[in-house]
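Feature request disguised as a bug: please show the residue count (307) next to Thioredoxin in the output. Example input:
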Amino acid sequence: MEPVMPNQTDGAGGPQGALIKDTTTETFAADVLDASMEVPVILDLWAPWCGPCKQLGPVLEKLVTNAGGAVRLVKMDIDQHPEVAQQLRVQSIPAVFAFKNGQPVDGFTGVLPESQLKQFIERLAGPVGPSPAEQMLEAGHQALEAGDLNRAGQLFAGCLQAEPGNPEAIAGLAQCYLKSGDVERAKQTLELAPPEQRQHAAISSAQAAIALADKAAEAASVDTSALEARLAENPKDHEARFELAMVKNARGDREGAVDELLTLLTYDRKWNDEAARTQLLELFEAYGPMDEVTKTGRRRLSSILFS
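Example output, currently without the count:
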């Protein structure tokens, strides 16, 4: 299973064809006004120097493709063809206009979140279903949860081929490598994330899981009987309890690890600069917000901290 490098795109050209095409001043009337008599047409005004245009273009193309012919996308480089932008009194780009029956009926400027772009298109074309990439992503998560790492890796890689830079697919692929024991490849995979996606929740969770795996490698060989003997003699041996929690986590005993850290917190919240609370939060991030151990552990942590 090899990591998939994202394809580079300038966000300007887009695929050519019936649904998505470039236009000029000369072909604008046919491509936009006449075409909108049959089906709604979205006009994307962009320029090669416009960074936000490069973010918006691929998302618009994906959503228009998902709409399956219910709407079309026409792209115009206003550096090469400024007349239409001037007629529409465009003052900043990206500028997007929706046309129906030969007339503009909706529009916006700047970059919108994908959810708002989807609503914009659905106002024109009706409900837009999940894209093939989104379907692969969902199936990848299901396969990962079921422990089918090969299938999960193939699905996440397929999603990345369709949507280079997708943070959830990158994080999912990294988790596949991590669960297979290839920590270095997991780290390399996370480096595929674009800078603007480095703080995405899925990427952060994968980073936390990798950091935890590094700690687990050190803790796995620890003799737990010695730690348990220390705790039997002195339940407030916080260092022994903390080490025991890390060993339990390294061996897959998530509940046991969380129990030990929560017990330590009940004895001394401030021990070692709140090391137990900090480690708990790192565990929860690595496990993921929907994990049952995370949910239960967070409730118990809140009860302890606010009691």
